[in-house]
Specification:
- The structure is a single chain.
- The protein folds into 2 domains: 8-181, 3-Layer(aba) Sandwich (Rossmann fold); 188-250, rRNA adenine dimethylase, C-terminal domain (Helicase, Ruva Protein, domain 3, Orthogonal Bundle).
- The chain is 34% helix and 19% strand.
- The protein has 10 helices and 9 strands.
- The chain has helices spanning 12-22, 39-47, 65-68, 104-114, 127-133, 144-150, 188-197, 205-212, 217-226, 240-250, and strands at 8-9, 29-33, 50-55, 73-77, 94-98, 120-126, 153-161, 166-167, 174-181.
């Protein structure tokens, strides 16, 4: 029975495939969020040197007793969006998880920013989220999370997963997503710029940012022009690397800017 809205993955072939997809090496430290009944955790523990597990549901503790007692597994009971990730020792170098769909996107951003030690993510997410995070600039699905994560990682769908492999069966299909770090995490200024740029998608990038940070219009439009873009460009037409350049040209954005 699912607790707290969780859907448990029990297909052994798929679980083995996810571990293969992760390309884990012996001795690596792994972060898993959402252990469920521990079926993926046990596979990770067989390969990795150490596994940090964040699980919110203490009701699952009886299913995890052997793992909790394992010296190579560290269980942290709590909300993954509130746990102090910076306190994890040893520092995780990979994340492998069947992510809770309700927090998948903000959690990916949070782990990228707060855990620069992570080089690779292999995560199960809702298919719609996977499609959004792999969308190209200029498409309707391309948005703030895509631009943020893709500015520091290459993202691809490794495999598509039907809803029938979960218990209970969810209403949506899923996908295994691979993210490999390609550069430094986007800083606070860059993330703020991206969020503001997509806040009003039908406006030009400069107008959208000015709506969120009144008075910033001239500075942003000037930066857009210096970056070689048309001043009427919308956020959805800017590649992730373009936001890195724009952030460098614009600098910090503040309320009452200008």
């Amino acid at each position: 029975m699912a607790r707290l809205g969780q859907n448990f993955l029990h297909d052994p072939n798929l679980l083995d495939a996810i571990v293969r997809d992760s390309e884990l090496e012996a001795g690596q430290t792994v972060l898993e969020v959402g252990a469920g009944e521990g079926v993926l955790t046990r596979r990770l523990a067989e390969i990795a040197g150490f596994v940090h597990v964040i699980e919110i549901d203490r009701g699952l503790e009886p299913h995890l007793a052997d793992l909790i007692a394992s010296p190579g597994v560290d269980f942290i009971w709590g909300d993954a969006m509130k746990v102090d990730l910076g306190a994890l020792e040893p520092r995780p170098t990979a994340m492998v998880a069947n992510l809770p769909y309700s927090v998948a996107v903000p959690l990916l951003v949070r782990t990228m920013v707060e855990l620069p030690s992570i080089e690779r993510w292999t995560v199960m997410v809702q298919r719609e989220i996977a499609d959004r995070l792999t969308a190209r600039a200029g498409t309707r699905q391309y948005g703030s999370p895509t631009a943020t994560l893709s500015s520091a990682a290459s993202i691809r769908i490794v495999r598509k997963v039907g809803r029938e492999v979960f218990t209970p069966r969810p209403r949506v299909d899923s996908a295994v997503l691979s993210m490999v770090r390609t550069g430094p995490s986007p800083g606070a200024d860059q993330r703020a710029l991206i969020r503001a740029s997509f806040a009003h998608r039908r406006k030009s990038l400069a107008r959208s940012v000015d709506t969120v940070y009144p008075g910033a219009f001239d500075r942003v439009r000037d930066a857009v022009e210096r970056a070689g873009f048309d001043t009427s460009i919308r956020a959805e037409a800017v590649e992730p690397q373009g936001f890195i350049l724009l952030s460098e040209l614009i600098g910090p954005l503040e309320k009452g800017d200008g």
